[in-house]
Amino acid sequence: MRYPAAKVCPPPRPDTGRATIDAVAIRGKLCGLRDWQAADVAAYAYWQAPHHSWHDTNGPYLGRPSAEDGRQQAARLEAYVALPVERRPVPRESLAVVDPDDRMVGSVTWYWESRESDWRRMGIALYNPAARSRGIGTEAMALWTTYLFGTTAARRLDFSTYSGNAAMCAVGRALGFVEEGRFREARPWAGEVHDSVVYGVLRTEWEARVAG
Ligand SMILES: CC(C)(COP(=O)(O)OP(=O)(O)OC[C@H]1O[C@@H](n2cnc3c(N)ncnc32)[C@H](O)[C@@H]1OP(=O)(O)O)[C@@H](O)C(=O)NCCC(=O)NCCS
After folding, report:
1. Whose CA is nearest to atom 34 of ligand 1?
2. pLDDT per residue over 130-157, tens digit each?
3. Which atom of ligand 1 is nearest to the CA of 136?
4. What contacts 24+ positions apart, CB below 8 Å, involve 206-212?
């Protein structure tokens, strides 16, 4: 399977922590990933409110964020977008997921699972319910995986979810990620008991897949 991101990602820049003057704008067929902009802040703040449905499957067992949590998240984004792109880190820690009309519909993120061993964990949330179940999550994770392998020296990437998030588990399988860990009954929540699941991919596996 070929992914368009392979052609449009910036050249590899194993993360030096140094900035680049390049804005990130990666275009797929169904969606794109791009740098956050000041114009995204209002929509982002709107979607952080606790009543939105994306919270239902985004680690719900950790507790629903409060309205104040949402405001703080939005304030962090507002501070971040004030940074010119040449001062933003490579790789970006987050990019906006946008629809073909450049409207922000979600975000992709990563954080250190273990900085010492260059082990990074990815995340995704499509805030707008109209954007879900149309293939955007699968494509956005493919673009993000290619971007992160292209801008780091990471040997592997992964994401963590739970067995009750059928769509996220299906994204992992659709992209050829391997179910590397299943912690049985680790996520009892709301009267149901779910497993915690980690899906991962090696750089060598991803490169072979992108090459088709
Ligand atoms: C999880 C999420 C990223 C998946 O992205 P998406 O665009 O909705 O999913 P896609 O349309 O790419 O579909 C991916 C797979 O999930 C399946 N799927 C989609 N929606 C589904 C649903 N509601 N229930 C079960 N399976 C579903 C699709 O059939 C597809 O499977 P296939 O490849 O075997 O055909 C997105 O739904 C989302 O952001 N949800 C809210 C926040 C969240 O849960 N984030 C993840 C936290 S770990």
Report:
1. 170
2. 999 999 999 999 999 999 999 999 999 9
3. 7
4. 206/145, 206/146, 206/149, 206/157, 206/176, 207/149, 209/1, 209/175, 209/176, 210/1, 210/2, 210/3, 210/6, 210/146, 212/1, 212/2
* Mean pLDDT calculated for residue range 119-125: 98
For the domain made up of 5-154, give the CATH fold.
Answer: Aminopeptidase (3.40.630)
Q: Give the per-residue pLDDT at 24.
A: 95
For 81, other C-beta atoms within 10 Å of its C-beta total: 19
Ligand 1 contacts CB of residue 130 (under 6 A): no
Residue 150 near residue 22, CB atoms below 8 Å: no
Any atom of ligand 1 within 6 Å of the Cβ of 174: yes
Segment 34-57, tens digit of pLDDT? 999 999 999 999 999 999 999 999
